[in-house]
Amino acid sequence: MRIINDLKIWEELRNTVYSSDSLGFVPTMGALHKGHLSLVHRSVTENDFTVVSIFLNPTQFDNADDLHEYPDTIVSDRSRLKKAGVDVLLCPDYDQLYPDNYTYKISETEFSKQLCGKHRPGHFDGVLTVVLKLINLVKPRRAYFGEKDHQQLKLVSGMVKAFFLDTEIVPCKTVREIDGLADSSRNSRLTPNNRKKAPLFYSILNMDLSPDKVIEKLQSAGFKVEYVEDIGNRRYGAVYLGEVRLIDNVYH
Ligand code: PAF
What we know:
Blueprint lengths: L1 E3 L2 H9 L7 E6 L5 H13 L2 E6 L9 H6 L4 H10 L4 E3 L3 H4 L17 H5 L3 H16 L3 E5 L3 H13 L5 E5 L19 H6 L1 H7 L5 H10 L3 E8 L2 E8 L2 E8 L1
């Protein structure tokens, strides 16, 4: 696995060694878990080459503490990606990805203002902007996104259509622990007691109750609820356990 920090080197390799039409891409912010690895495995299976990026994108964090608390597990991330058969790990820095210092950005004006976007102003501008930059740099045939971040998945798919990008966005099923908790980089920050309680989020979200009743149940179980909302055939939720924010969604 080649580890590339310099985007100029990447661009040269993209035009020569990795010029295949069958290039898969998995963008990440690191702190890899089984969910990320399932995207990587799928890309490795479906493409000649797989590129993974690790870039902790500051423009999608509306809260500086959340950004600083984000786990950094780069050493184990590297060895897990190598073992999974990844060809290139791209790790650019802020100055390379944002030569404009974020004076240019991409916005979606409707769905991005709901759910997580309502509670984290500017979050999806940051996500869409960095994903557009990465897709333009990597030029993948396919890019893999998890259904756990369903709102992100829908917004990225919409952006790709809106801007005629030549990349297929491949949705991948949420990976869960045996007790139902969706895998997330933030799970490692749960206290042992909150880790025991966390699977209730998924089981209560799945109950055949109105969103208001689900909120009541979550609150009595000790969650601080940011939102529970039904949109289309999905029920979306975001909660806090202590300082840790968890999101999930279920078919409803
Ligand atoms: O889902 C994530 O980890 C991030 O939002 C992404 C897509 C890597 C963009 O920074």
